[in-house]
Each structure stands twice: as C-alpha cells, then as structure tokens.
Task: structure prediction
Amino acid sequence: MKLPIALTALLATTAVAAAQDYTVRLGHAQSTTDVFHIGAQTFKEELEAATDGQVEVIIYPSSQLGNIRDMIEGLRIGTVQVVLDAPSRLATYTPLGDLFKVPYLFDAREDGEAMWNSPGGAEVIDTIAGASGIRVIGVAWRGARHITSNREINTPEDLQGLKIRVPPTDLPVAMFEHLGASPTPMDFNEVYLALQQGIIDAQENPLTTNWTNNFQEVTEYLVLTGHVKDFAGFMTGEDWFQSLPEDIQQATLDAALAASKVIGDYVIAEEDNFVEKFREAGLTVIEPDQEAFKAKFDGFMEEFNPELAKQVETLKSSVTQD
Result:
C-alpha cells in the first residue's frame, strides 16, 4: 500500500530529526583560509562520521557568533557548544588559564603536547573546567608567537614604549609591561583597523594568524621573538559535555584530538613558507637573539603570580615523571 505523499514526507522528516539528536554550533574568530577553519572542518567530519549522523556540526567562522569573549561565554550558558581559540581566554574565570601563555615555557610542539597530555596537564584542565564551566577537550599547536610591527625591533630594549595589541587577559599585559612596552588589550577583530589607523604600533600572534589576517598589509616588520609557544584549544561547555552519552563524549574527544593533530601538522609544514611569504610581501624579517628576550623573564612568573609559578613547576615535573 502506498502512503500519502504528505505522510511520507512527515515520516522522512521525523527520521532525520531522530537521527540528528545533537546539533553542535562551533565558532572561531579566524577566516575560512586559516588553519583554524581547516581544524574545524576536520572536527566536523570526524564527529559526524563517528556518530553516524546523530551529531550535526555547524561551523561559524570569522566571529559570526560574536567576538571571542561572547563565544566563550556562550559555552557557559549553552548557546554555543564548541569554540576553537586560545584556552588562555579562560584566565577570565581562573588564573590557571594563564598557564597557556607563560613566556618561553617550552621549546617545541612535542614539549607542549607532552605537558598538556601529562597527568599534571589533565589535572589542570579538570580544575579549569570546575572553575570556569568550560572544558578544554583538545590542544592544538599554533606555533610560536611573533611580533608584526611598524617599528624596527632587534633587542628587548627596542620594545620600550611600543604600543602593542595583546589579548585581553592579565598575563600578556604584564609580560609586555615587564619589557617596557605599552600593551593595549583589544579584541582580535579590531586589530587590523587599529594597525591601519596607527592606534597601535604592533601586534603579536603565530605566523599563520598573522598572515591569514593580512597583518602584512599594515605592518613593516616581522620580528621572530617566539616569546610564547602557543596552543589553541577546542573548548566546550562543561554542563553540555557532561550531558552527552558516553559514546558521544568519546567521539567528541576523538574528533578534537584528530583535528588538533591536523592543525599542528599544518603549522609545522607551513612555518618556513609563511616566513618567506612575509618577505615576498615586502616586510623586513628580523631574527633577534631570542635568548636575550628569554633572559628578561627570569623570575617574572614568581613576581606576576607566585602560586601560578609553582603550578608551572608542577606541570614540568609531571612531564618528567610520566
């Protein structure tokens, strides 16, 4: 017996609705040409495939869900399910978020991954989740942070009075104040125009971010300071994550891990190419003595936050003992 067309359509719609039990709104602040978007697409593909259509992931690039602070707050109230950005943003809710922006904490991707995947790293992530209501489910290597500037910088002393945009959390502000600069906390989507209009002299980010956001158009120098070895993070609201069935939780974790690897591998493969792109765009590439910059931070963390400095040492020892 043939079913009426309207009934057939209703049953089909109901079947799709039943299959897609969860909708994940994933937001990030970067353009669709950035490695963040490549990682977001990988997360979507992995999670949807692993859950046989139970989960649908919708990606919102370029701050379509609001600025980064809005998106992260959305994780807490449940209007956004996943945000891909710097976990250091969680310093708004707990000082432990600053651990993701400690200057010269380690030297390479492998060192950072070992730290965050150690028992000490897992404990920090659990504590952050309890304090902020946001869980970091994957850490992705972004590369070292470097400065693009309209002032020539060869030594730490050249930073004196430099108006440099930094992320709007306490540690980056304190770092550049410590170096004698004049840091300006600012939302990321305001940076290009601020450089163009001369409101700021410089900004600092990993190479991929510097290039895909066209900072080569509004700055004259790329200064390879490498002052923070940076990780992005796939972050979810803790309440939302804990509400998921165990199999969906595990699929979400696996998708974040796979996407984080894609991001890190891309950054490693393209790092030298991005430096050359800056040269070809007409910027002067400066390779200062990074050890001179690193030496300026001796004792800095103890001064900035003694308890956080102890936590840094605990993390380092956790890697050693693992």
Observations:
- Strands lie at 22-27, 55-60, 82-85, 134-149, 163-166, 182-185, 202-206, 221-223, 229-237, 284-286.
- Residues 1-19 have pLDDT under 50 and may be disordered.
- The domain at 5-321 is CATH 3.40.190.170 (D-Maltodextrin-Binding Protein; domain 2).
